[in-house]
Model the fold of this input.
Amino acid sequence: MQKGFAPLLIIVLIAFLGVGGYFVYTNYLNNPYKPPVQNTVDETTSWKVYTNTKAGFEVKYPERYTEPYTLKGTQGGGRKVTSKEDDLGITWGDTSTGVFTIEFYPFDGSVEELQQKGRKGSGLAGTETESVVKELTVGGQKAIWTKVTSDVSADELHRIYFTGNQHGFIFESTKVRSDDIPMRILTDAEISQILSTFKFSESNSSIGDWKTYVNAKYKYTLKYPVSATIDELNNTTLVLFGENNLSGTFYVSILDNLGVNIKDLTLLINWCDKFTNQSDIPMGSCNINKDRHKGGTLSGKTAFIQESVGEQDHFEDVYYVPYDNYVYKIGVMTSAPKELTNTKTDYIFETPKNILSTFKFTK
Done:
């Protein structure tokens, strides 16, 4: 009896385990294990927001920062932003909070072209080397994160390039300082967190009802305000505009390229050295300063951009665009000091930027 009982007991145990296992498995399928949900707090919810209605974007920044400012066009100090800035750099912070800058300007190329032709010259001593760290997404657009170092110091900058709303954007922050000035350094995580809040929005532009100017000889078009006037002098087109006793002149001058195939800044400078001031062409002079140069595009063509000197002559940036055996020199002069910013001067500063955004080659 005992010999026959043992096999029977084994069979019963196997059957019991099988049935039990079946019920356990069935219960798992019907009620799978779910790990406990961890509540994450979005730290950026309480952050401050900078909104730009002109270029069409917004970005958040930590509460420790005061209001951002811009240095362009000022004499020895920054001025507060107005939400209508364009074609300049906006800076947040100081040595105690950590400093970062977002530079943006009209640009219709790819992010790769922006990285190749964008802001060059960071203020580091010696010769700079820029290397790609990684690719990422900012505002739903592809971005390129780079590191800028010097051959004579330990200074290091990080720069993030991205595009959107027909603008190029360059985020920049100091990562390493070799001097003795104490400064808070933004970590990669902090930079990524700031960039994660960047959003594009609709730009607020009033050019929909503007008139259209067509230059058939030199194959380009642009739009201009209804209240402005067009004046054609030799190879130059002038758009004259004004408001509140302030005036401005947007100009397109066509200069002979002297047979030089201008592909880079060095060739542009060589051309400029050979180029004699054509006195019969308004705005026909050539003045290239490599220390105030940045690359870009205009209507799909390579543009060499001379950054504004600032206060004395009130010139905005000047574009040199080699195209079709000519060099198109495009710029603006205004009668309003650039350090002023109020409703009376906004029109003078914003109008030429809007005109430039409509410039198109027709060939």
Q: What stands out?
A: The radius of gyration is 30 Å.
